[in-house]
Every structure is written in C-alpha cells, then in structure tokens.
C-alpha cells in the first residue's frame, strides 16, 4: 500500500480560518475557566454567605460539566483527548478511509445520477450558453490557435518512421482494391457530358501545330536524309512545303470547325470506349493491368511513402501561421457555429437533446470511477494532516458547541438545583 500523500500546501490552508479557530478555542476555554473560577469562589464562600451561593455554585458546576463534555466530544472527532487512547475517539483519523468511501458513495448516489443531471440540464439553455461562450471577442481565434497547438503536439508525438509505411500501405491497398475501369469510365463520362473532351482535342491540336512549326527545320532535315541522293533539293523543298502546309491546314481546319468529321469520330470512339470500360471484361482488365503497373512504379511508391510527411508538414506550417487559410477557416467555422447555436431552432434542439443523452451516458459510465477517485484520494491523504485541515475548515463552528455546552449546561444546572430546592 503506498504511503499516505500529504495534502497540497495551500489547498485547504487558510490563515484567516486558523485565526478564527484559535479565537473560538480561546473563547470556549475562557468560558470554562470563568465557570471554574466561579465554582471555586462559591466553594470557598460556603453556604454561610447566603442561599444564593448554592444557585451560583450549581450553575457554575453544571457549566463546567457541559464544557468538559462538549470539549471531549469535539476533540474526540480529530484526536485522542489528552493523548489518551480512549475507545471511540480520534474518529476522523481512525475512520478516514471509511469516510472517504462513504463520501464517494454519497456523491455517486445523490449527485452523479442521470436523473439529477438531466433535471439540472432542463434548467440550462445549453446552446445559448455555448454560443455565448464561442462568440466572446477573440474566442474563435484563440480556439483555432488551441486546436492548432493540439494538432502540432499530436503530430510531434507520432513517429514518422512508423506512420510513413502505414500510410503508404493504406493508400496502396486502397488503390489496388479499387477497380480502375469504373472510375476511369465515370471520369470520361463527366468529361464528355461537359464537352470537355472537345476542348482537350482543340488544345492538343494547337500544341501539335506549334510543335510542328517550331521543329519545321528538323522535319525538313529528316526528309532530306530519307530522300534519294539523285532527287534535287528543290524537289524535296516543294514536296515538304506542300505536305507541311497541308498538315497545318488540316489541323487548323479541325480546330476551327466544332462539327468536323474528325471531332464526331473522336466523340463517338470515346463514348464507345466508355461503354466498353463498363461492359467489356477485356477492356477493364487492360486498364487494371495498367493501373497495377503504374502502382508498382518506383516513382509512385516514393510518392505514396511521402504522403504522411508532406501532409504533416503542410498542416504544421498552416497551424503555426495565425494568418493561414487553415486557421482562418477554423475560426470562421467556430464563429458560424456560435451564431447557429443562438439562432437555428433545429440545431439548438439537437444540441440540447444530445447534451442530455451525452451527460446521462457519461454519468452512468463514469460515476463509479469518480466515486472511486474521491475515496482513493482521501485514502492517500496523510492522516494527521487530513484531521488538522478538516478541523481548520469546520472547527470554528464546532467550538460553538463547547460555548453552547457551557451556557446550556449552566442553565440546566440552575434549573435542576432550583427544582430540587423547591421540592425539598
């Protein structure tokens, strides 16, 4: 069993309480001493001084008895009176662990119940309070910064050498498990439906025309090398110019005519290919083989392995910059949520209802743990220190028991003595 743990200094200590407790002890002890002095004086005076001495003596005597009895009762809560091991004294030090267990059970059964928590929540407008909290000036920005700090701390705890292969394996497995043909078919369908494939063709024709023009001399040289040596150069020039001009003209014609036959043929073939991707197993298999070949390429494997590092670095950079798009968007989302919590009836009802459910679940799930926390924490406290600090908290009020015992005891003694005199 671990050694008792001292209560944190200052957790319950209060110099003002200590002074009040000391004053009350002095008052209670002072009243006892006054009663003792009066009693002693009455004994010394004797009955010869008058009949009144008996009444005063009985009152003082009963006050002393009441004061001593209540002193014993109050002291017995915290320590052995006069350091004597009298049974059933030093109750708090002796029963500290049982008190802690009882306190934990009391809290669990009377406070940490679904009925109590839900009844309290019905009196609280949770969405408005939460919305008001979030709309405080600068709160959204601070929460966005806190979220960024949490993300940064979390990424620093995670080891890159563990996560990089794990992320790469997840991506690789997902890509291998996803059929490529339906995905490619859907992409091409979107392209065709938006007529984007014709735009792609027009761009390709323009690039091809530019490429031919920029490399005209290269193509002319290739024709010269392939032409027989006996053919004059001027013949080669005329043939090349006519072929080159015809090719450029054709490209320009196709690019300028949206209804050109080549475009219609291209459109029809692309649609047939999309249909084949969805219905022809051979076409789908060829696409799948191409996908696997690409995934096995070293460059793709390097890319998948760097996904975690690249994503982490991008997030950390954005999280560290108060002016980043990430921080701005998070702050904006918090602000929007705050306004919705205050104005959107549907969201307000949802939050209020789920708050009840969540709070009830948490109470039922963790009330036993919280009760155990109370009892185990009290059990770890140092016995003497616990007793001293509890006395510091409630001892001042308990000293009034001594004061009241002195006064009430004296009055009771006076009444009893008076009745005895009347009956004698």
Mind explaining what this structure looks like?
- The longest helix has 41 residues, at 383-423.
- With 424 residues, this protein is mostly helical.
- Helix 2 packs antiparallel against helix 19, helix 11 (216-226) crosses helix 12 and helix 17 (325-343) crosses helix 18.
- The protein has 19 helices and no strands.
- Residues 5-11 have low confidence and may be disordered.
- It has helices at residues 15-45, 52-78, 91-94, 96-110, 114-121, 126-134, 139-157, 160-177, 180-193, 196-214, 216-226, 233-256, 261-279, 281-295, 298-305, 307-320, 325-343, 345-380, 383-423.
List the helices and strands and how they pair.
Elements: H1 15-45, H2 52-78, H3 91-94, H4 96-110, H5 114-121, H6 126-134, H7 139-157, H8 160-177, H9 180-193, H10 196-214, H11 216-226, H12 233-256, H13 261-279, H14 281-295, H15 298-305, H16 307-320, H17 325-343, H18 345-380, H19 383-423
In short:
The chain has 424 residues and is mainly alpha-helical.
Defining traits:
424 residues; mainly alpha; 19 helices
Number of strands: 0
Total of DSSP H or I helical runs spanning 4+ residues:
19
Percent helix: over 70%
- What letter string, H or E per element, gives the SSE order? HHHHHHHHHHHHHHHHHHH
**Overall shape:** rod-shaped
Mean pLDDT: 83
**Ends: how far apart?**
65 Å
Q: State the low-pLDDT regions, or none.
A: 5-11
Please tell me how large the radius of gyration is.
47 Å
Structural class: mainly alpha
Largest beta-sheet details: none
β content, as a range? under 5%
